[in-house]
Amino acid sequence: MMNLKICHKKNVILLKKMKLQKLKDQAYYLLCLKKKQIPYQFSESVSKKKRFLTNKYLNEPTGWVSKGYTFIETNEKPLVVVYFEPNKIISKKYNDLEKLSVTDFSTFPIRIYFNKTNWLNPPKPFIVKSNLKKKRKEMYRKYLVQHEFGHVLGFGHPSLSLQSGKCDVMLQQTKWTEPYCEANFSV
Ligand SMILES: [Zn+2]
Q1: Ligand 1 centroid to 15 CA: how many Å?
Q2: What angle do CA 79, 71, 182 make, to 5 degrees?
Q3: What are the pLDDT tens digits along the chain (187 aa)?
Q4: Is residue 29 part of a domain?
Q5: How far away, in angstroms, is 46 Cα from ligand 1 center?
């Protein structure tokens, strides 16, 4: 009986510590959003080239930086960790049958899984005008980086509707562009 009580007490303390940590993580997240400064890190598994391109696309002048956000690559207290995984792995991990990339808020730091399969070969629904064909892959990657980091900034998906002009960067353009709207990576 005595032992059980001690055990229970330890569990209560552990639970309180966990709750406190969660609150601290939440407060840190809100602080980053308020300051518009997003510290992030790459998983060790991400290649130099992918790091370089992600950093470049993240700082796209018409992207979130145009709204005053700064993205800081750091090993100290990152808010986000960036991974690149093939579709197979992401689908298995998230029961995702739609072949998408994922921003996972269930952990701290937040995890972004860029879908490597789509990164290498942009899916068919991402349609660009014929004169932009050569730039299609780059456009898709810019969209993807802006979109997933947009989730980190607190933005969700808009509803799909027929609209003229450019797609909202938060629309799932891996699934839809034309005839609803034009592929777009600007915010
Ligand atoms: Zn999304």
Answers
A1: 32
A2: 110
A3: 557 777 788 889 999 999 999 999 999 999 999 999 999 999 999 999 999 999 999 999 999 999 999 999 999 999 999 999 999 999 999 987 788 999 999 999 999 999 999 999 999 999 999 888 899 999 999 999 999 999 999 999 998 877 779 999 999 999 999 999 999 999 9
A4: yes
A5: 21
- How is residue 96 written in tokens? 């995702």
pTM: 0.92
Residue 153 Cα, ligand 1 centroid: separation in angstroms? 12
Cα–ligand 1 centroid distance for 99 (angstroms)? 12
Q: Say if 179 falls within a structural domain.
A: no
The alpha carbon of 4 and the centre of ligand 1 are apart by a number of angstroms equal to: 46
Concatenated DSSP letters of 7-57: HHHHHHHHHHHHHHHHHHHHHHHHHHHHHTEEEEEE-TTS-HHHHHHHHHH
On whether residue 99 sits in a domain, the answer given is: no
Determine the distance separating the centroid of ligand 1 and the alpha carbon of 157, expressed in angstroms.
Answer: 6
Measured distance CA(185)–CA(167) in Å, rounded: 8
List alpha helices for 59-114, DSSP H. 87-94
Q: Give the number of domains in the chain.
A: 1
Task: Classify residue 179 by its DSSP letter.
Answer: B
In a domain, 1, yes or no: yes
Centroid of ligand 1 to alpha carbon of 91 (angstroms): 15
Name the residue range of residue 6's domain: 1-35
